Amino acid sequence: MVDLRLSNISKTYRRGTAPVFALRDVTLEIARGELMAVVGPSGCGKTTLLRVVAGLERPETGNVYFGEREVLAVPAERRGVGFVFQHPALYPHLSVYENVAFGPHSQRFPAASVDASVREAARQMRVDEDLLPHAPRELSGGQRQRVALARALATKPQILLLDEPLSALDAQLRLELRVELARIHDASAATTLFVTHDQSEALSIGRRIAVMRDGRIEQVGTARELYDRPANVFVAQFIGAPPMALFSGTISDGRFSAAGGLTFALAAGGPGPALAGFRASDARIADDGELRGTVSAVEDLGADTYAYVGGAFGTIVVRTQATVRPGESVAVRLDGARAKLFDVDGKRKDA
Ligand code: ATP
Fold it and tell me: Radius of gyration of the chain from Cα atoms?
């Protein structure tokens, strides 16, 4: 087990003559044996980050350390890294057993330990012994992904890189493997980076989560930290569902005020323009609410109901127990103490 550090990594691709800045000065530390999720929208640089760690891409600047060791000069096959992709790239002409044995063989494990490693990894990933002699094409998508994970685990990697390994699977299987991944990680103890574009997957799997945008790390923290103390508007809106509603207004005399009667007292915060963010749980439908609006849509998710309320203030999503219908006029009360305040450039005011 080693800790993994990336320091000031930049990676630029070329598209025609135009540069594409895939990673911009990325610095990230993952503790020994930690499972960190990396989340961000499509194209923000998540895969490139993993490829740099694996040695499949060389950055222009910065360095990667496994423990104290600089690894940029170490070729991919000697880095001791396990890599699992979104679409499991199993060798079609090899059996499941041979696929899983491929890593230990190519890393010249002694013959006796290859078999033990294959069977242990298959057991860990709950790949049935009966499947081992079969060809990958005879397996379901979920089974193939289990084999791909077993193949990565069979080499007992110090570092495990998982690039959207669940996103090609159906919802039920995804939830099942989500839970299993945490168990497998605990058993393998490999320092693990798990990439996904799905914030709920990132929050559920990562002990800590790195949020990326446009080649940069925006914030690293636990699910609770990202949810309660987002560093900026991007993280505030990316983490949590439904997304946080934002209102542009002004702070003066200890109050935030925006269009449509949206106003609340502040404990702190200097005067000037600002943005205030409310999550659905920070607002409720109440007869004495200060905001009047019309319900534009209702999402009933069983456990929770969300009403989208529009008015002169904009639109806010409200979690509610009340039965409301689209078109209905309602009053909304905001919990000003729970508002998240941001500068006009999007940075958290009290961060
Ligand atoms: P996704 O979630 O869609 O897989 P991502 O966050 O993993 O996206 P990357 O695949 O790392 O993002 O890509 C980051 C940026 O670099 C994107 O703009 C992408 O188009 C670009 N890029 C990636 N690989 C190359 C390449 N080989 N040549 C040119 N541009 C590339």
Answer: 24
